[in-house]
Structure formats: C-alpha cells, structure tokens
Amino acid sequence: MTYDEWSRLPVIAGISVGKNSLGMDCLILRFSFFWHLLQTWRTERDTQRRNELWLIVGFLIGILYLLRLSHSATATICLLVAILIVVFVGVRPTIKNFIGTYMLAALVLLVAAQLAFGISGLLSESLGRGSTLTGRTELWEHCLQLQSNPIFGAGYDSFFLGERGKRLAEFYHKWTPGSAQNSYLQTYLNLGLIGLSILIGLLIATFWKIRLELFRNFEWGRYRLAFLVAVVVRAWTESCFTTGGGLWFVFYIIAMDYPLTHLPTVQPSVWVGSSEESREFAYAEDEL
C-alpha cells in the first residue's frame, strides 16, 4: 500500500510501485488468461479441460478484484478494448483480409472525434476522472511550453532534469513531474520529431507483421493484434514506452517474429551398401 501524491489517501499498489503499475500488471495477466480461456474452451471435453477452465476462471476473478482495487481507468479501458478485438476478430475471421483498412478507418475516426468533440475528456468525465484526464492535459501544455528543440529533443530520458524540472516544479508547488504521462509526447520531448517518427514506424512495422501472422497462425495473430491496440491506447495517458515497464517488455514479444530453424536433411551416401558392415566402413571412410 502506498499514498497518493495529491490526495494523501492510501492506494493499493500490490506487487507494483503504484496503482497504475498494478493496473498494467492486471491488464497483461487478465488479457492473457482470457485468451488462454478461449483456446482451452475449444479443446476436447474431458476432466483435464474442465479443471483447466476452473483454474483459469479463478485467476480471472482474482485479477478482476485487483484491477478494481487499483482504480486504474486506463487499464480497464485498454482491457475492454483488447477483449472486444479478440472476440470480434474471432467471430468474423474474414476480417483479416481487410484488417489494415479497418484499423486505418478506426484511427481516422478517433482522431476526428478527439479534435471535434474531445472524446478523451468526455470519456474521462464519465469515469469520474475529470475533463483534464486527472490533470494530464495541463501537464502536457506545460511540457510543450518548455520544449526548446523540436527536431532532436532534449536527449534520451533527460527532459525532466535540470532547469526544466525546476520550472515544472513551480507550476505544481515544488512537485516535479517525472514523466509526461503520455508516451508519444514523452518521446517527442526527449528525442524530438526524429524519435517520434521512429516510434511510429516501429508501431506500423509491428502491425504489418501481425497482419501477416493472421494468415499463418490466426489465434496467435489476433492475440498480438489486440495487445498492440491496448499498448497504443494506454500510451496516450501513461508513459509505458520505457525499458523498465512490463507492458513494453510484452510489446517486444508481440513485435518480434520467431522463424523456425530448418535443419539440413542428411542424405545417405551412394557408396553405402545394405549391410551393417558396409555402413560402418562408409562412415569410417568419411571420418578419414
């Protein structure tokens, strides 16, 4: 248990360092167990399958309880989005033929809704977090005011150090933010437009790999797709593109392809006869 920096009220942290980190862990575990539940449900009915299903359901109930204790709205939304994608793609497998078009259309609609109606603020208000996303939008404005090098940024993981950190502390009564609470903005602040372009390129390349995976291994492909969307959504209100984050570690797993190693097939020698003596002689001859 820890204490909130603003309200000074106790919050549940569990195995993590804060409620948001606990929500992230619950997001990873609950989504993975849900996907495993779908895989187990399709297996042959027997005692082992029944016991496995009861075990998975038990884990899901426990993780849901911890997720509610964490009060992490972002993790809850990302989990629901990931589950909806897995279910929708599973119900309509033919969607994989046009998955790129659907994802691009959804992205355009979300951007248009954000610019026109401020959908993120409305969603935050509905969850009781206020229209400023618990003060995040104010922090974003202050950080952008202090960005002095939009091309290269302030340097890797150094924007909140030194004089900029002191100036930010003046806005928050001596409390110095340690991150921008937005992975895209934080990448821009530290690495500029060049780093942000590389990050976007990485996400696009990962999606392209997942699209191809849907045609090779559909079940694993839809897991990767749903988790990628959850990462992209969570990065809007959390700084999760860091080497020490659990979500970023799992992102490496879904972003990589693991090609099978094909071992060369040994061809029998034409000089080898049918008897055991001739085979032994041929092997001995090869060694010499």
Main β-sheet description: 2 strands, antiparallel
Number of strands: 2
* N/C terminus separation: 70 Å
Write down the Rg: 25 Å
Total individual domains: 2
Estimated helix fraction = 55-70%
- Report the β-strand fraction as a percent range: under 5%
Nearest-integer average pLDDT: 79
Unreliable spans are 271-288
Based on Cα principal axes, name the global outline: globular
- Helical stretch tally: 11
Tell me what you see in this structure.
This protein is an all-alpha fold and 288 residues long. It folds into two domains: 1-71, no CATH class; 97-262, no CATH class. It contains eleven helices and two strands. The chain has helices spanning 19-41, 47-70, 73-91, 99-117, 119-126, 136-145, 162-171, 183-216, 218-234, 246-255, 276-287, and strands at 2-3, 10-11. It has a two-stranded antiparallel ribbon. Strand 1 and strand 2 (10-11) form a beta hairpin. Helix 3 runs antiparallel to helix 9 (218-234). The protein starts with a strand and ends with a helix. Mean pLDDT is 79; it is low at 271-288.
Protein topology:
Layout: E1 2-3, E2 10-11, H1 19-41, H2 47-70, H3 73-91, H4 99-117, H5 119-126, H6 136-145, H7 162-171, H8 183-216, H9 218-234, H10 246-255, H11 276-287
Antiparallel strand pairs: 1-2
Helix pairs in contact: 1-2, 1-3, 3-9, 8-9, 9-10
Give a summary of the structure in a few sentences:
This protein folds into 2 domains: 71 residues, no CATH class; 166 residues, no CATH class.
